[in-house]
Amino acid sequence: LREAQLGGTRVFAWSGLSFDLRWLAHAAHDKALAREVAMELYDPMFQFATMRGFPIGLAAVADGLGIAQKKLMSADQAPVEWSRGNHQVVLDYVAGDCTLTNRVVAAIEFERCVRWRTKRGDVKTEPMRVLRQVKDVMQDPAPDQSWMSEPRAPSAYWAWLQDERA
Predict the structure, then answer these.
(1) Is the pTM for the entire model greater than 0.70?
(2) What is the pLDDT of residues 19-34, one digit of tens each?
(3) Alpha-carbon gap, residue 111 to 92, rounded angstroms
(4) Which end of the chain has fewer CB atoms at under 10 Å, N or C?
(5) What is the pLDDT of residue 48?
(6) Roughly what angle, to the nearest 10 degrees, separates helices 87-111 and 44-52?
(7) Are the C-beta atoms of 14 and 99 separated by less than 8 Å?
(8) Quick one: which of 63, 26, 18, 69 has its CA closest to 44?
(9) Is pLDDT at 164 greater than 90 in this prediction?
(10) Which residues of 123-132 are buried (b: 16+ CB within 10 A; e: fewer)?
């Protein structure tokens, strides 16, 4: 991933900052390299959460943007299926998530906004004129979360970068 970034490729992930790269750092025993990738990552979910104060799921955004592709399972099911020996099912899920993320990113860039279907079934829209790297989004002011009962600070998404145990 880092070589691709250094070669000019924009690397995208949905929740990749707080999930994927954290676990890659752990599995590869190379937090420094994972941090380099994380800082130059484009993570539209992190960007959205920093703007609005709450996360949204990839499936909800795909639905809101009119992308018919569905997720094959939820992320928490993948380790369970893997441990059951259903490796191909998990690999298919991961490949599908990559394809879905690419389609969502393309739609966000085309529409210049994020649209998602809420749990109530409404479609909401948030302007997102340009997708930005994590290192730039991290500099943004915290959103107003005064209305939330259990707010999650944007810094919580990248706290693992500073945690020596990560």
Answers:
(1) yes
(2) 899 989 999 999 999 9
(3) 28
(4) C
(5) 97
(6) 60
(7) no
(8) 18
(9) no
(10) eeeeebeebb
